[in-house]
């Protein structure tokens, strides 16, 4: 990874505590590269642009022959498991002002303990405008019980009650501002102006390169912001080809994708239809274009853990920094087909990068992602791939630096 690439991914990760922060950050990068923002409803769209819908983003560059060559789509997700702040969060317990939280997706709960946490999100104002905010530094902490009060924890394992044990303390002074007052200060508005708050906790520890050989990247939200980085970078670094290039980044993957802005919603389909219509392609031509299209769904994979090799089928377990993994599941938890796999393998060989294969153990249920959903909605040949990582759904995950570059190169070769 070049110095510029490292700075670029670290900056994205540190700037993006929530899906909306992420799409805002990526939108600014697209604008710098002369992509036009077509998010406002009802306007004609142009050849190189993007649309933002809440925490989701679709960006494209028109092809010269979309009806014959179709769309080349790279999909990924913008959300990560986390702890969100409930609407009436304020509570006072034994000298602490605490916040009530709701669990989003399936985080490794223990990883949220004893961290310096910030709060980020957005508000909807009376004017209808939304405004993003994030705390400057750390403002909250969920403390683990001392070992003296939980003697068997190292033998029995940590057991957390999801309602009782996950409330962060965030101040001590009984006269400290309420959550609403604090958000009003953060957003430089008034409590009267704020109609709704959407907020979550995040780790204030910045993303970092680690390892004596600087081969690893540790950060929050690598699943799946690492794929978002590889996808948007590939689009920015490509030039127009025969097919229309599309990057689709969806919110709500971690909770099943069924939402207005999730992969199961109509955002991608409607955008593709609009892109085709603006290219003068008829409805029949659009359906023809879809049948000539393909999709790479990029979402991180489980690398073989050096301490738990028994959790993998070792002939199908991806090794860190050995290239992106092709994810296969004959029960269609992954969308990969023989032809879409061949397409990804061809992109990797064109890019001169290695790839690996992931199939889970038969006695281990397999995760899923946006690939099968996109394939089902649009009937497009789709391949599920992903950078191998450890600690998936931990507040701090780790992946291989060279794998991110390999994915980026393979996606660029795919667009070409
Ligand atoms: Co994921």
Structure report:
- By secondary structure, this protein is an alpha/beta fold.
- The protein folds into two domains: 274 residues, Aminopeptidase; 122 residues, Aminopeptidase i, Domain 2, CATH 2.30.250.
- Helices cover 28% and strands 26% of the residues.
- It has eleven helices and 20 strands.
- The strands form four sheets. It has a nine-stranded mixed sheet with strand order 1-2-3-13-4-14-18-16-17, sandwiched between helices. Strands 11-12-20-19-15 form a five-stranded mixed sheet. It has a three-stranded antiparallel sheet with strand order 5-6-9, with no helix packed on it.
- Helix 7 crosses helix 8.
- It is globular and about 70 Å long.
- The site of cobalt (II) ion has 7 residues, from helix 6.
Question: Could you give a quick summary of the protein structure above?
Answer:
This protein is of the alpha/beta class and about 425 residues long. The protein contains eleven helices and 20 strands. It folds into two domains: about 5-80 and about 220-415, 3-Layer(aba) Sandwich (Aminopeptidase), CATH 3.40.630; about 80-205, Roll (Aminopeptidase i, Domain 2), CATH 2.30.250.
